[in-house]
Write a structure and sequence with these properties.
This protein is an alpha+beta fold. It has two domains: 4-46 and 151-226 and 329-368, FAD/NAD(P)-binding domain (3-Layer(bba) Sandwich); 90-142 and 229-321, 2-Layer Sandwich (D-Amino Acid Oxidase, Chain A, domain 2), CATH 3.30.9. It has eight helices and 20 strands. The protein binds flavin-adenine dinucleotide.
Length: 369
């Protein structure tokens, strides 16, 4: 590593890599620091892999704006870099009268914010699309889709390197200290060896550790108004004998801090149900098998032929939520504190952060590039 660079990005998840890629287009020397042995091993590879349309989030929020912008950038990226993806379309299903009212409200809102083409389907029309699904009403979003997240992460990492950026693995950010003309970034590797980098710009894209990294940058406690509430989402695979579904992603209405236990089929066609939403104190990715009954019940509301024996524990991911179980909306935080010129802290980048990643990268580069 040169010890003087134009920008340092902490975290090689999709967001850090997208920021690094954009910065590489504008600057000479960009270094990504990642504590793990490879890219995207935390939130970025533990999600639904869905390219969202931007249906649910408030107007004028970063989540809406960057999701809609990011969806287009992401599909274009996948086409340009041969990343497997599919515009499968998505169905949001209402299974009760109360759901119907909420779904109509969601549809009006989505049209207002410009979340792509949408069509309300009657019960019969929805059944034609998905014969095993039971609902009163459904909203079809044809621009939603799925992406192979592992291939996407690999393509981001490859393109950062192609653009002369460096990604340094097994390297932990220790501290960021203000020096004349910029920042001194201290790191340690797995052997305990320390190193230092001088830079004009720092991006904190540390996902679940973003607040810890903000503290290590010397921000005072009153300058860190955020708190993270890790929220685990588990997935169960749909095995042989599970009722068939076609190509669509099938979602209930959002509930309990998540988008509801939905069914996705990845690029290989493997189907899974999830994620649920469980606020946790520790990072533990074990999937609790005893949740099978609850999953079968949640999915059974719209796919009545599902049985617990069709489900097997698959994987889990943990959302870096900025609100606790009491809920409420929290937007993405892209913060460039006035006391820290050239530094951006990206906090609370939960869903739709995968979809929005390239748009976040462009926005952050505009902030500090
Ligand atoms: C269950 C679940 C489902 C989701 N589904 C979707 C979906 O379908 N569609 C969608 O658009 N979004 C989805 N998301 C959101 C999306 O996955 C995230 O917004 C996105 O992956 C966040 O990426 P990131 O780069 O910010 O975080 P991460 O991928 O976690 O990257 C942060 C990186 O920083 C590194 N790091 C942390 N601290 C340090 C340090 N001190 N030194 C060095 N490195 C450090 C970590 O090792 C990690 O690799 C989902 C999220 C979850 C949890």
């Amino acid at each position: 590593m040169d010890d003087r660079v134009d920008a340092v990005v902490i975290g090689a998840g999709v967001v850090g890599l997208a920021c690094a890629y954009e910065l590489c287009r504008r600057l000479e020397t960009v270094v990504v620091l990642e504590r793990d042995v490879g890219p995207g091993r935390e939130i970025s590879s533990r999600n639904s892999g869905v390219v969202h349309a931007g249906i649910y989030y408030p107007k004028d929020s970063l989540k809406t704006e960057l999701c809609i912008e990011g969806k287009k950038l992401l599909y274009d990226w996948c086409e340009a870099h041969d990343v497997p993806h599919q515009r499968t379309g998505k169905l949001i299903v209402a299974t009760s009268a109360e759901d119907e009212t909420r779904l109509r409200r969601i549809a009006r809102h989505a049209a207002e914010v410009g979340a792509g083409a949408l069509r309300m389907l009657s019960r019969a029309e929805a059944r034609e699309l998905e014969p095993e699904v039971r609902c009163e009403l459904a909203l079809h979003s044809p621009t939603s889709g799925v992406v192979d997240v592992h291939e996407l992460i690999a393509s981001f990492a490859r393109e950062v390197k192609e653009a002369d950026g460096a990604i340094v693995y097994q390297t932990h950010l220790e501290s960021i200290e203000r020096i004349a003309g910029g920042w001194l970034v201290r790191t340690s590797d797995t052997m305990g060896r320390q190193a230092e980098l001088q830079t004009a710009r720092v991006v904190n894209a540390a996902g679940l550790s973003a607040i810890e990294v903000a503290r290590r940058s010397g921000l005072a406690e009153h300058e860190i108004p955020w708190r993270l509430y890790p929220c685990k989402g588990s997935y169960f695979a749909l095995g042989a004998g599970a009722p068939p579904t076609r190509n669509s992603l099938i979602y209930p209405l959002p509930e309990g801090g998540g988008l509801g236990v939905h069914i996705t089929a990845d690029i290989s066609g493997a189907r899974r149900a999830g994620p649920d939403a469980e606020f946790v104190d520790t990072i533990d990715y074990t999937v609790d098998e005893s949740r099978i009954e609850r999953f079968a019940e949640a999915v059974g509301r719209y796919l009545p032929a599902i049985r617990p024996e069709h489900l097997t524990p698959d994987y889990s991911g943990i959302r870096p939520k900025l609100v606790g179980p009491e809920g409420g909306f929290a937007d993405f935080v892209l913060s460039n504190p006035s006391t820290q010129p050239g530094v951006a802290h990206l906090v609370g980048i939960e869903s739709p952060g995968l979809t929005a990643s390239l748009a976040i990268g462009a926005r952050v580069s505009d902030m500090i590039g």
